[in-house]
Structures are given as structure tokens and as C-alpha cells.
Amino acid sequence: MPISEYEKKAPAINGKRVIINMKSTQCDMTGVGLFSLGGDEDSPDGRFSSAPAKRDVNNEYKLMSEAVLEMKEGRLCISYEETAIEEVQGCTTVISFEPETPTCITVERLGPLSSAFVIERSKRIFSIYSTPFGSIDMCTYGNRVENTVTEQGGKIVLDYAVELRGMTAQRTRMELTVRLADGE
Question: What is the Cβ-side half-sphere exposure of residue 15, based on CA atoms within 13 angstroms?
């Protein structure tokens, strides 16, 4: 799929208006099965060191959007409407974390396709991906998690694998920059 750029107004939620710029690439991790790994000592860390070449990238996205940044129930939340990925248009994405643990990030998608998953470095975490046709087991593994976002903006850099049970694992590299909108 070619690079797409979209601009969309954020839903009306309390908080600060921010502008997000996101760059994301995804590629298949053929032969990596996150569900089939053994215990904590059997991790996919080594599989990330041999990064696929640029030609192996399946999807590349860019998104520039207005979003909302707010503190909610002890978590710093960035909320925006999903527009860059055709399959999830009409969904709202919320990226959140506790300020005391900024490298443990929750990504929640609300709408027709809903999911909530956690990305934390060197941890394999299980969750559920819900579709109108039923739920699917999902597993994530964080290779790199960097986060400097505060209530004044910042940047999140993620490199993680996600697998829906029975499908090829996919590696996602994402960089999300958050800056206050004019007048905030």
C-alpha cells in the first residue's frame, strides 16, 4: 500500500489539542511464532537484529492529525481518529501510559475493530483482538520502547511484533511526535 497522508479533526474530548505526526512501517516476520515460544528465556530478541530490508516492508503509513492529550485516571492519553489504515477507519485510537512507567505503553482501538494491547520492552503480552466476526487471540512483543511524552508533547518510538493466532507475525516500527496545537 502506498504512503498515505491524512489530516482529521480529533473527537471532542476534554484535554489539550495537539498535533501528532506518525510514521509507521510494517513487515512480515515469516517463521516467527510469538505464540509458539517457550518461557521468558525463549524470546524473539535475536529475530529483531536481522531487520528486513526496505524492500521487505509490506505497508508504510504517515498520519498527521489533530489529537487530544489528557491526563485520565492517572494515565497520560493521546486520542485520535484512525484514518491512515483503510481497515480501521472509523476507529478511535488511544495511546496511554502511566507517567511513572512511560515505557509500558497501552494501545487501545475503539470502534468496529477493537483491541487493547500493551507494548513493553522484552515482554511477551497476550490480549484479544475483537472483530464483528469474533475474537482472535493476539500476542505482542516489544523490542524497543522509548517515550519522552509529557503534557507538553514529546515523542514515542516503538519497534514491536504482533501476531494474531494462526497468522504470520508482523513487525511494526512507529515514531509518533506530539506537539501542542497553536493556542494551547
Answer: 26
